[in-house]
Design a protein that fits this description.
The chain is α/β, with parallel strands linked by helices. It has a single domain (about 5-310), classed as TIM Barrel (Alpha-Beta Barrel). The protein contains twelve helices and ten strands. Helix 2 crosses helix 12 (about 285-310) and helix 11 (about 265-280) packs antiparallel against helix 12 (about 285-310). The longest helix is centred in the C-terminal third of the chain and has 24 residues, at about 285-310. The protein is globular and about 60 Å long.
C-alpha cells in the first residue's frame, strides 16, 4: 500500500519547516491501538506535525495488517502532517518491507557496523526509498541503554563531525541521527551534572549544514511518574532522563529537527494503569485502565509538544 492512501506524509517538507521555524518534530513511539490513538489525538489538539515511530519489535507485536488497519481507522489527512516511521530498522530488507506495507519514512540503523558497510547499506535503501518518495534516516555514533530487544546499546560513542560529512556525501540520507550524550531507556544519566555535548552538535552542523539532525533516547523521565509507579507497587530505582531545558535548546536553537520519545510515554501509561487499579481495585474491565493509559499518553504528548518541541500550531 502507498502511504498517501493512508493520509500520511514523508518527513521532507516537515523537516524543512522545522529548520526554518525553530522547532522540532516529535517522534513518539507507539506499540498498540491506544498509543496510536493518543499520539494522533495530541497532534490534532495541538495542530502539531508528528511522527508515529514503530520499532521492529512493536511491529512484530501488533502485526503488519493490524498496524495498517489501526492507521487506516484513525482517518488521517495529509494536511495533518503525520508520518509513519520505522524506528531502528535492522536491515535493508526490513526497511524495504516497511516501505511496501505503507510506511512513509524508515530508519536504517547500521550504527554498530563498519562505516563502509553503513554507507553502502544506507545508500542502497536511499535509492529504493527515494524512488517511492520515502524519507530515510540513518545513524552515526552509538547510544547506550535499553528500550527493547531491537533498541539497545552496550556502549556510547559520540558522532564524529568529519565522518558525518563523509557519510552524508556518500550515502545521501534525508536525516541523520547523532550521538551527543542521550541514551535509550529510563536510565539516561547517572547525575544531574551530565550534559548533552552541544559542542559536538555545533561541529556537526558546520560540517553538514543542510542535513536535518535527529536525537534518539531523549525522554525526560519525569520524577512524578516514577514516584507514582513506585508508590503503587513498581520498582524503578535511580531513573533519570534528559534535562528538559537542554531539550528545549536542542529543539529550538539547533539543527535538531526530530527528537524521539519512548520512555516518557511508557512511564505515563504505566503510572496511569497502576494508579487506576489502586484507586479502583474492584475494576476488572481492561477498558477502564486502558482509557486511563491512553489519556495519560495523550497528555504527555501535548505537554512535550508545547513545552519542549515548540511545534504547537506549526501545521
Amino acid at each position: 500500500m502507498k502511504y498517501a492512501e493512508l493520509g500520511l506524509v514523508n518527513t521532507q517538507n516537515t523537516f524543512e519547516s522545522a529548520l526554518r521555524g525553530g522547532f522540532a518534530v516529535p517522534a513518539f513511539n507507539a506499540y498498540n491501538m491506544e498509543t496510536i490513538q493518543a499520539i494522533v489525538s495530541a497532534a490534532r489538539l495541538t495542530h502539531s506535525p508528528v511522527i508515529i515511530a514503530i520499532s521492529e519489535s512493536a511491529l512484530k507485536y501488533m502485526g503488519e495488517n493490524m498496524l495498517i488497519g489501526i492507521i487506516a481507522g484513525t482517518r488521517i489527512d495529509q494536511h495533518e502532517r503525520i508520518a509513519l516511521h520505522l524506528d531502528h530498522g535492522s536491515s535493508v530488507e526490513s526497511c524495504m518491507r516497511a516501505i511496501n506495507i505503507g510506511f512513509s519514512s524508515v530508519m536504517l540503523d547500521f550504527s554498530k557496523r563498519d562505516l563502509i558497510e553503513n554507507i553502502n547499506a544506507t545508500a542502497n535503501i536511499v535509492r529504493y526509498a527515494h524512488a517511492r518518495d520515502i524519507s530515510v534516516e540513518a545513524e552515526l555514533g552509538e547510544l547506550a541503554g535499553f528500550e527493547d530487544e531491537n533498541t539497545f546499546g552496550t556502549k556510547s560513542t559520540y558522532t564524529d563531525p568529519d565522518i558525518a560529512k563523509q557519510f552524508v556525501a556518500d550515502a545521501h540520507p534525508d536525516s541523520l541521527a547523532i550521538a551527543i550524550g542521550t541514551s535509550h531507556g529510563a536510565y539516561k544519566r547517572k547525575s544531574a551534572d551530565e550534559k548533552l555535548r552541544f559542542d559536538i552538535l555545533e561541529q556537526i552542523q558546520e560540517q553538514i549544514p543542510n542535513t536535518p539532525l535527529v536525537l534518539h533516547g531523549a525522554s525526560t523521565v519525569p520524577t512524578d511518574l516514577v514516584d507514582d509507579i513506585n508508590k503503587f507497587g513498581g520498582k524503578i530505582q535511580n531513573a533519570m532522563g534528559i534535562d528538559i531545558e537542554q531539550l528545549k535548546f536542542a529543539a529550538t536553537k539547533t539543527h535538531i529537527c526530530k527528537i524521539n520519545i519512548d520512555s516518557d510515554l511508557r512511564l505515563a501509561a504505566t503510572a496511569a494503569i497502576r494508579r487506576d487499579m489502586n484507586i479502583h481495585p474492584e475494576n476488572f474491565n481492561p477498558r477502564e485502565y486502558m482509557d486511563a493509559s491512553r489519556d495519560a499518553i495523550r497528555d504527555m504528548c501535548i505537554f512535550l509538544i508545547r513545552e519542549v518541541f515548540r511545534s504547537y500550531n506549526k501545521i
